[in-house]
Amino acid sequence: MPSDDEAQVLSQWSEELARALQILDLDVDQELVLDLARKSADSVIHAAAPVTAFMVGYAAGLEAGKGSQGSDVSPAVATNRAADVAFKLCSERAEGKGSEPTNQS
């Protein structure tokens, strides 16, 4: 977990980025994202952290975006569902059940 100073900087950065991206109503569960990044980095490779966070966010956005077409899936629920999938894969990797990377020349 980040220190209090780091958490404050992260919060300010998130607000600044949200304004720049024009997603002012976005409520980011920073602890969930940080935990997801940490677990994916630990169970795959360090570079998996940002890729996992992006892909979970993208999947959540797609699911929540369907909400405007009659579904009642909130962004928070969609994020938790996508994160649960990623956490499960990370756990499987940690237990040796996941796919191993292949070296291709």
Automatic annotation (TrEMBL):
Superkingdom field: Bacteria
Record protein name field: Molybdopterin-guanine dinucleotide biosynthesis protein
Q: Which residues form the DUF6457 domain?
A: 6-94
Organism source for this protein?
A: Paenarthrobacter aromaticivorans
Among InterPro entries, the record links this protein to: DUF6457 (IPR045598)
